[in-house]
Amino acid sequence: MEQEHGFPGFPLSPDQGVSRFYANLLRRIAEELAQEIGGARLRAVILSGSLAGGEASAFRAAGGACEPGSDIDLYLVTGEGDVESLGRRIPEIRSRLLSRLETPGLVIDLGVTSPDRLGALPPSIANVSLVRHGKTIWGDPSVLEGAARPAPDEIPAWDGFLLLLNRTVEELLELSLLPPSGRKEQEFWYRFGKTVRDLGTSALVVGGAFRAGPGGPEMGEFAREKRLPEGFAREHAFWIEQKVKPDLEKARERYGGEGAFRRVQIRKRELVDGFWDWETGLLFGEGNGPVDRRLRRAERLRRRIRAWCRFAHSGGAGRRVVIVRHLRRGIPLSPLVANYVAAVHLLLSWGPLFGGEPGEEDERLLAEGERIAPVPSAGGAAFRERWIGLRREVCSFWNREVMGSTRPPGSLEME
């Protein structure tokens, strides 16, 4: 990107109009953060994620104006003594930042770190992406230059599985029952492509093959060897190409043109189901009871007890009732993992929301999700009401406990 746009010279998107949009937006964000936090405490603001890698997406609103299609992933670098206190302020900082920016559809994920912590980064998908693509957009660039460079081969398999779980909850957040049109169609295809790419990354990490990065030439051979869902390697290659040069017409044609919305939703469910079975079998063993029981064995009892106690303590009397219910069942999972497993059950049971009567498998999955979830929904007699109520609780829990309330809650469109 040109230096005249007032931003460091690196591409934010293949589309120069999109690059200019994000450059201006990021400059405003950096200035607001420096003012909000104070330059004396803030050492640097580092951009990571799809924007740093030059793969940002934006949607064209009426009149050709851009609206953000990619999350903005930022690390705030401060002194070690300020990490915890600043971390506690992130929800309020983000709320004021979004209010001042007044940009519809904008999602900003903020993390807090220090130079010492950057110098000791453990291997993870996020950290490898940070050191590969991260860009300093404000402050001292030497902070990022001093970051450790974890080897992709050292990323633990669990981190890949965690990506699958996070992607599952994000699918629930974004799920709409309305066939997309206009801007929503762009967003629909972008989200589906992101899901396919994230599933590929997840599989490569779990399978110990995350070397050159997702979309590398090893995916085809890897998919055949590991017996990933049929046709996934070709689908993955298609969406890697779409990431660089989106073509909505090609996407529509690939999934059958008229009626593609329904087929893509079914395909999404097939992929999540296939990857869930494959990854849990590889990580926790097969044929030995329900997945939640296998995951329970993978989590140490002491860790589960501590997690449930913190969860109950933070939520007052209402949550204490919840923990008593789970104690009677032998603390099956930590609250976070229980919420993830409930999310998978929800995503695999949403077929009836598109019409038709719930089958036995849908009813079983929903009931199991209700049993596992750390915070039960208000429920309701009808399948649809129960599903929507549990989805609301699962997404709220994830937003609060994982994202620190930095991601706005989704809303399921029902009409």
What labels describe this entry?
415 residues; alpha+beta; Beta Polymerase, domain 2; 2 domains; four-stranded mixed sheet; globular
Structure explained in plain terms:
The protein has helices spanning 16-37, 49-52, 83-88, 90-101, 115-118, 125-133, 142-145, 157-174, 183-206, 218-226, 232-244, 248-254, 260-284, 291-298, 301-328, 335-348, 360-372, 383-401, and strands at 42-48, 58-60, 66-68, 72-78, 108-113, 135-139. It has 415 residues and is α+β, with helices and mostly antiparallel strands. The protein folds into two domains: 3-150, 2-Layer Sandwich (Beta Polymerase, domain 2); 157-401, no CATH class. A four-stranded mixed sheet has the order 5-4-1-6. The protein has a two-stranded antiparallel sheet with strand order 2-3. Helix 8 runs antiparallel to helix 13, helix 8 (157-174) crosses helix 16 and helix 17 (360-372) runs parallel beside helix 18. The radius of gyration is 22 Å and the shape is globular.
- Main sheet: strand order: 5-4-1-6
Rg estimate, integer Å: 22 Å
Question: End-to-end distance, in Å?
Answer: 42 Å
Structural class of the helix and strand makeup? Answer: alpha+beta
Order of helices and strands: HEHEEEHHEHHEHHHHHHHHHHHH
Helix content: 55-70%
Mean pLDDT: 82
The profile of the biggest β sheet is:
4 strands, mixed
| Net shape | globular
Beta-strand proportion: 5-15%
| Sequence stretches where pLDDT stays below 50 over 5 or more residues | 1-6
- State the helix count: 18
